[in-house]
Design brief:
Layout lengths: L1 E4 L6 E4 L6 E2 L6 E3 L2 E2 L22 E5 L8 H5 L4 E8 L3 E2 L3 H10 L4 E6 L6 H9 L10 E3 L8 H19 L4 E4 L1 H7 L11 E4 L26 E5 L17 E5 L3 H8 L22 E4 L4 E4 L8 E5 L4 E4 L1 E3 L2 E3 L3 E3 L5
Parallel strand pairs: 6-7, 7-9, 9-10, 10-11, 11-12, 12-13
Antiparallel strand pairs: 1-2, 3-4, 4-5, 6-14, 7-8, 13-14, 15-18, 16-17, 19-20, 20-21
Helix pairs in contact: 3-4
């Protein structure tokens, strides 16, 4: 076991080596070794606040070798765009890249490519290897930054700048950055170059907006810089089958704008899913109905005691019940009927 400090609350957690998903024992923030995500709210205000639903009209997914075989008809009925891993490190090419590019092209799904960075290795080889695919994909090329390679803040900053500058000088295309606020804020100094590039932010949450890394926030610019893509759901979501991929999980993304904004930004419209994604089922006729609590209840995002507790509803609280599932009522989250869940 190794220790992993939660970027959100500072608690030191024990975690198995490698990319193993777990949650902070104190605040519930999702952790991976060397990669910490923020939870939905801060402990002082998290309470029972539930984010308002957003109408995300342009959504997508990202794919790599780990997604395996794909039912492209089903995948195309779910996504408006896709990001594909071109490779990682100095020169490793994803073995599914050509297959996935052809699948997207055959089904009219605009796509972009990303390269997973391995800091501490040869930044020039990284850039040159990724540059081989400069003409592929309508969406911006992305550098995936989620490892330090053992480099400190100053060294990591310098290594990334050299890679980015080399790629952009060779291809003439601007690189976007994929990262999480937890990783970037912990391992990078405040820079003056990253904020000028498009941001694909990794923040797994049900909140209505992601937390941005400091370089893209007002802390580094009075107006802030918007995110372009948001990976809002990833490891552990068990949505793979619903999207037609062989893996149990799939990374899901949102575009910060509507179809017309997407066309203006990238010169191509997002894929039209044809309205084949069915709406959620209507609740039973007896719902919604009023419910008054008779004890203190733990509030959870899903109907299981193993899910993170996100707040407490006190005795006597008047709620509107929307549905029920086994031993659980659905309000804006899930609470156990016997008050002990």
């Amino acid at each position: 076991m190794i220790t992993c400090k939660c970027d959100y609350c500072g608690t030191v957690n024990e975690i198995a080596p490698g990319f193993v998903a777990m949650s902070c024992v104190k605040c519930g923030a999702a952790l991976r070794e060397n990669f910490a995500y923020y939870p939905v709210g801060v402990p002082a205000t998290r309470g029972v606040t539930i984010a308002a639903a957003e109408d995300w009209s342009v959504t997508g997914a990202d794919l790599s070798y780990w997604q395996g075989d794909i039912d492209w008809t089903l995948f195309a009925s779910k996504v408006n765009f896709a990001y594909l891993r071109a490779g990682y490190g100095n020169d490793y090419t994803d073995p599914r890249l050509t297959e996935y590019m052809l699948g997207c092209a055959d089904h009219g799904i605009p796509f972009g490519l990303y390269w997973y960075a391995k800091p501490g290795k040869d930044w020039a080889k990284h850039a040159n290897s990724f540059a081989r695919y400069e003409e592929m994909g309508a969406l911006p090329p992305v550098l995936d930054v989620e490892e330090t390679g053992g480099l400190g803040k100053t060294a990591l900053d310098g290594w990334l700048q050299k890679l980015v500058n080399r790629y952009e000088s060779v291809t003439g295309r601007a690189l976007a950055i994929y990262t999480s606020p937890g990783f970037w804020n912990t391992n990078m100094p405040l820079t003056n170059w990253a904020k000028h590039r498009k941001l694909w932010v990794a923040h797994w949450t049900s909140a209505s907006q992601p937390v941005k890394p400091n370089d893209w926030r007002p802390k580094n610019n009075p107006d802030g810089y918007p995110w372009t893509f948001w990976q809002w759901s990833a490891g552990g979501n068990k949505q793979g089958a619903a999207y037609g991929v062989s893996s149990g999980d799939i990374d899901l993304n949102r575009y910060n704008g509507d179809r017309e904004a997407f066309k203006r930004a990238f010169g191509v419209y997002p894929h039209d899913t044809g309205g084949e994604v069915p709406p959620p089922p209507e609740p039973p006729a007896e719902y919604p109905r009023e419910f008054v609590t008779v004890g203190n209840y733990n509030l959870r995002r899903t109907p299981t005691v193993s899910d993170n507790k996100i707040g407490v509803i006190n005795n006597g609280t008047r709620l509107c019940v929307e549905a029920e599932y086994g031993d659980w009522y659905k309000v804006s989250a899930w609470i156990h009927k016997d008050c002990e869940g």
